[in-house]
């Protein structure tokens, strides 16, 4: 963990230009400069650079509960980094600032503390027993001792969004792919802890365990359907514990590959106008844009429409970075804005490839009073094979 003077080296690169302001989903809710990346950077610089004159004149910027709350009011969407003209790696910076705040006795939010306690106890943020983790698996799907891929289910799909896990497994099975799962030996990837400044357990326990499980069995390919798991294993594991020995796919990448290889074919129509929502952790963070769209274009009868903000410029759904768990009302307001864009584009259905996006966009539609449903790519695809 870096101290404030080391973090300051990154802060000094900030030009205070404000290009990060308007894309910030939290700023769109608040409208206050203190909620913007620029505002947070400015205040941090004042803390790091305060002088005896500041003390004499009682200009003493300090860490307090309100500033701490502002730092944790971040969806980890990465829009600030995408629009930054000096290419500050803001998502990692905010994680380090959260970690520093916690070391000073401020934060995390109460909801984030509970998540960490559950992960420490049960290796998932939902406080569910390990033996229930593989309970979603349909009885007609046979696991292989020599799999083509290992399906890393993720906590949310294993315990809360089981239909998404089922759709993924059934599509792989229908394409003739031999699969295995870690089952009770699968632990949380660590994303909820990393995004909320609680990194140590990820480095010491979670990441090494999940990598060891793959290597212990000699498994060579992992797929996951959760954008958060994918981003964490792809981008965070290498910098935290070293490059894993196995190949990693998001399921949309793998399904796209199966379609191109002629192993996954769609014979039924989906006669709807569909807007695809880019999850921040799959899109801006991991640069996976075309595979989910390729899948949707391969489905007969489906008309793909794009929203005003898409790909690198896609609006956040509001659910990431632990934001929804601590600030649910704002998260749903952010989601409502995204749903409105889909309706304006003429969509009848929103499709995404992240369980958190699906949950929050459906909540946003309800909040906005709009009758439009969000589905997962795998759910749509399964209806059409």
Q: For the largest beta sheet, what order do the strands appear in spatially? A: 2-1-3-4
Write the CATH fold name of the largest domain.
Rossmann fold
Architecture of the largest domain, according to CATH?
3-Layer(aba) Sandwich
Main beta sheet strand tally, sense and closure:
4 strands, parallel
Q: Tell me the series of helices and strands, N- to C-terminal.
A: HHHHHHHHEHHEHHEHEHEHEHHEHEH
Count of folded domains: 3
Number of helices: 19
Uncertain spans, ≥5 residues at pLDDT below 50?
none
Taken as a percent bin, the fraction of beta residues is: 5-15%
Characterise the protein shown here.
The protein is α/β, with parallel strands linked by helices and 385 residues long. The protein folds into three domains: 4-107, Orthogonal Bundle (Fumarate Reductase Iron-sulfur Protein, Chain B, domain 2), CATH 1.10.1060.10; 123-258, Rossmann fold, CATH 3.40.50; 264-383, 3-Layer(aba) Sandwich (Rossmann fold), CATH 3.40.50. The strands form two sheets. The protein has a four-stranded parallel beta sheet with strand order 2-1-3-4, sandwiched between helices. Helix 10 (162-174) packs across helix 19. Helix content is 49%, strand content 8%. The model has no long low-confidence stretch (mean pLDDT 95). Strand 5, helix 15 and strand 6 (303-305) form a beta-alpha-beta unit.
SSE blueprint:
Elements lengths: L3 H8 L13 H6 L6 H13 L2 H5 L8 H8 L6 H5 L6 H14 L6 H13 L26 E4 L2 H5 L2 H13 L4 E2 L10 H4 L5 H18 L3 E4 L2 H15 L5 E4 H10 L12 E4 L13 H8 L5 E3 L17 H4 L1 H17 L4 E4 L2 H14 L4 E4 H7 L2
Parallel strand pairs: 1-2, 1-3, 3-4, 5-6, 5-7, 7-8
